Amino acid sequence: MKKILSSVALLAAIISTPASATNWKSVEQRAAGDTVYFHAWGGSQEINRYIQWAGQQLQARYNVTLKHVKVSDISETTTRLIAEKAAGKNSGGSVDMVWINGENFKSMKDNKLLFGPFVDQLPNWQYVDKSLPVDVDFSVPTEGLEAPWGVGQLVFIHDKQTLNNPPKSFMEMLSYAKAFPNRLSYPRPPEFHGTSFLKALLIELTHNDSSLMKPVKDADFQRVTEPLWNYLDQFHQVAWRGGKQFPSGTAETIQLLDDGQLDLAITFNPNAVYSAQSNGNLALTTAAYAMDAGALSNIHFLAIPWNANASAAAQVAINFLLSPEAQSRKGDMNIWGDPSVLSSQYLSGSAKKTKQFKSIAEPHPSWQAALEQEWLKRYGN
Amino acid sequence: MLRLLYLGLIAVCILPTIPGLLGVVLSAFGYIPPIGLSDFSLSGFSHVFRWNGVWQSIGLTMYSAIISSYLACLITFAILQSCWNTTWWRKIETLLSPLLAMPHVAFAIGFAFLFAPTGIGVRTIYQSFGYDLSSQNVNEMALLVKDPDALGLIVMLALKEVPFLLLMSIPILQQLKVAQIEKVSHALGYNNSQVWCKVIFPQWFTRLRFPMLAIIAYSVSVVDIALIIGPTNPPTFAVLVWQWFNDPDLSLLPRAAAGAVVLFIIASLLIAFVQTLEWVVLKGFKHWQYSGRSGLTLPGKSLFSLLTILAFIMLPLMILWSFALRWRFPDLVPSQFSTRFWQYEWQSIVNTFGQSMSIAVICATLSLLLALIAHEYRQRYRIHIPGYIIAIPMLIPQLSVLFGMQIATLYIKSDVYSFWVCWAHVFFAFPYVYLSLDGPWRSYDQGLTRVALSLGKSPLHAWFKVKLPLLLPAVTFAWAVGVSVSLAQYLPTLILGAGRISTITTEAVALSSGHDRRITAIYAISQALLPLLFFSLAMLLNHTHGKYRRLSIKGLLTHESLSRKPRHP
Q1: Domain of A347, in residue numbers
Q2: A15, A246, B75, B373 — which has fewest CB within 10 A?
Q3: Which residue from B118, B136, B344 is facing A259, i.e. has the nearest CB?
């Protein structure tokens, strides 16, 4: 009986897998020799180095060349793709792979700039932890147009030696700033850490108003955001450099924390503190923490533009980046430390040990641009 | 043949200005068919002027450009006044070439290392005077890097332009016969500083008009430097336009184009301002030139020493940073060292080096060939393009013309990135190469070629055997200038290369925003070394060539064309 069962299973395997396996084989064959231009944020050396490593592996295993095009904001790439779409360039495009989420995903999806659905055809899709919200991106369904790559949680870093008891809510943060002026700040929006800070703040101040989950045009923007601007008006008066200058991004806040100019740094990667320590960017007494209410959390994704010149090679690259090996390395505290999207049973090394903070969902992506515009109008000079 | 080549030159280096400017002006009025905008409107401009803080930003740009350029001019004059024809001058001339070769970006990064609120300057003050480091005080020290009044940008640009103005002053002062002027004026009872202020300054200042225009145009439109040490909230206008240019909402592209047009207008206004100021000082109100015995003695030697010391502290400081694992504020030296950052970056530096060098060498060689063609053509035919038209790419803001060029490449074929980048580099490097050959070509004695021709040699033979060997030092120098201009291009590489082409300069600027000082240091060092390498190569070539020629044709060495070449290395 057992024998029969196993031979039936074998037979089933022979009948069912070959279709997708040969499919995938042919994707790999088409990929060989191609170059993938991967547009990704280039603001962190740890990440850049990881992508460089992935490129070497892809070259050695699949004969695929991965070129990291370092952008300061992925919206630059969205612009480029929209221009190519408008110019009728439906093949041989200049971008093969992008690292996106939220607003940029929505914009690319709405403008039909994405290739796919392709995600469930990736052999390594089976290892992905489906209990994570991997099929929605800032409340927009992904519909298989983008593959999850990692988890981001907006957390703060403090130095236990100088500030043992950091503010655990945004209200406490304001009182702290008033008691110790010039010691707190956040990256200047529209830099995405800065905008995320605004979103987290807005969620706390409005007690997560239900209209935040819907498109901004359906909400009374002025009424909902009123507490946010009141808060910022007070906060900026006692913020670093009088709220007239802001750090440019997460890296600068980490630098300023280490220089003793700020008491809190901000990051989307709870494990960034370990790699920063091992690279000498932060003291060993630093630690990451989330607000009591939780950390603004999202998943970041990899996608392929509709007109990609090397879409087969891009799929091979994405599949490789989803492999247990690549994800374990990505989650390694000393390398990048980005929490993995795979179930932890497939992971090895320190990536397995990552704990996640209590999470707060992102507002609807349309809030991003609205908040950025209003911020620039009020504080942009 | 020469005519045909000359036409090619016009097509490559002069004509693109027209679609460049046309493209940007049409886009500014909302006409960009490739992205579906085909109605003329003024909304681009109204967006520009509705932007919060735009006037502050424009004001910052204008005053930082004017003050930095005239500060550079004043420092240059001070140095010339106290050092020309003295033993100091020899030292200055030898130091000029490393100072000039140091790219703006590397200089700005070094400047930030020194003067940031937690930079080595503040650390030294703290360590030696026990300065109180509470954050309020440190924030008050944020005067020279990313300060809201652009002071750091002004000082840094002024210092960096001084070597260029000094270089440009050499042929001017040589023509002026300074020694004779001094002798006559001394005989009339004027002392040295009076002579320099009343007699030499007016003549020198008139002839320095073009270099002044070049640096003021550069300061108005510079983006890379302003990103590193300029104000951020609001930034200078060029940076603002660059941010608009990168806005994801394409329907706002007319705003960026209108900004580029406004930038062009600002640059033109400032050029007019330079001309007016020159007229006011030298012609309008020239009373000061002949009444009384007022004369300023400026501390030129100390200024030059300061500049040199700053520049030469930067390199060791950057090297120290690149090996520092742990270097906390306010320590004066790192507490832990490591070579791991060099190991991490080595592979990508080697790749970027290769790409930068090949682009630079190709572009410099092409620009050199084109410049040679232009000069030969000018000497042979009466109708040719006047110098100021050739200099246009030096005077219009890069953003303004590149914008239109990118729109133009959308119409043609936008995916041959390396080709477009190379061409843009040639376009911007050509005027510099042309100008550095200008002096030597004008002072070449045509009689020598005529003698060769009358001895029955072909024109080509005469050119290669007589003219080229004599002018070779100037030619190799011009080539090195072309290489360094090409290496320093930031916007052309980024805009036309679509981010796919990265050179050592684009990497240095991109990584300086990553705020890892070790990585920034590594790229700044690499960026500083590359042009120096080419200048040294040019010097070496001249040296060996000089020796060889001294042996082969004695007597010609003292020819005027040699003493009149830009006496740079």
Answers
A1: 29-149+299-352
A2: A15
A3: B118
Amino acid A96: pLDDT = 95
Q: Residue A34: pLDDT band by 50, 70, 90 thresholds?
A: very high
Q: What is the pLDDT of residues B282-297, one digit of tens each?
A: 888 877 777 777 777 7
- ipTM of the modeled complex: 0.80
Residues of chain A neighbouring B327 (CB-CB closer than 8 A)? 280
Cβ-Cβ contacts under 8 Å between A and B: the total is: 129
How many domains would you assign to chain A?
2
Residues A166 and A206 in one domain: yes
Nearest to B56 among A72, A107, A381 (CB): A381
Residue A300 carries which DSSP code?
E
Q: Output the six-digit token pair for B486.
A: 């090409």
Note whether A329 and A229 are within 8 A (CB). Answer: no
The CATH number for A315's domain is 3.40.190.10
Residues B246, A73: C-beta atoms closer than 8 Å: yes
Report the C-alpha gap between B569 and B561 in whole angstroms.
15
Token couple for B415: 């995916």
Cα B517 from chain centroid (whole Å): 25
Residue A11 included in any domain: no
Do A142 and A177 lie in one domain? The reply is: no
- A374, A244: one domain: yes
**Looking at the domain assignment, is residue A22 inside a domain?**
no
What residues of chain A lie within 8 A of the CB of B234, using their CB? 380-381
Mutate to test the interface with A, among B118, B250, B255, B320 (most CBs of A within 10 A): B250
Pick from B52, B136, B347: which is nearest to A380 by CB? B52
**Spelled out in words, what is the top-level CATH class assigned to the domain B1-41+340-569?**
mainly alpha
User: Are A345 and A247 within one domain?
Assistant: no
Residues of A in contact with B326 (CB under 8 A): 280
**Of the candidate ranges A251-255, A332-336, B412-416, B479-483, the one whose mean pLDDT is the lowest:** B412-416
Q: Are residues A375 and A233 in the same domain?
A: yes
Q: Is residue A305 part of a domain?
A: yes
Alpha helices in B412-467 (DSSP H): 417-443, 446-454, 459-462
In this predicted model, which residue has the larger pLDDT, A9 or B467?
A: B467
**pLDDT tens digits, one per residue of B508-541:** 888 887 778 898 899 999 999 989 888 888 888 8
CA A363 to CA A202: how far, in whole Å? 10
Q: Check if A80 contacts B (Cβ < 8 Å).
A: yes
The helix/strand/coil state of A215 is coil
The whole-angstrom separation of Cα A79 and Cα A326 is: 30
Indicate if A94 and A167 belong to the same structural domain: no
- A275 with A327, same domain: the answer is no
Nearest to B250 among A49, A79, A376 (CB): A79
Rounded CA-CA distance A276/A286 in Å is 10
Residues of B in contact with A67 (CB under 8 A): 500
Nearest chain B residue to A253 by CA: give it: B515
Residues A188 and A270 in one domain: yes
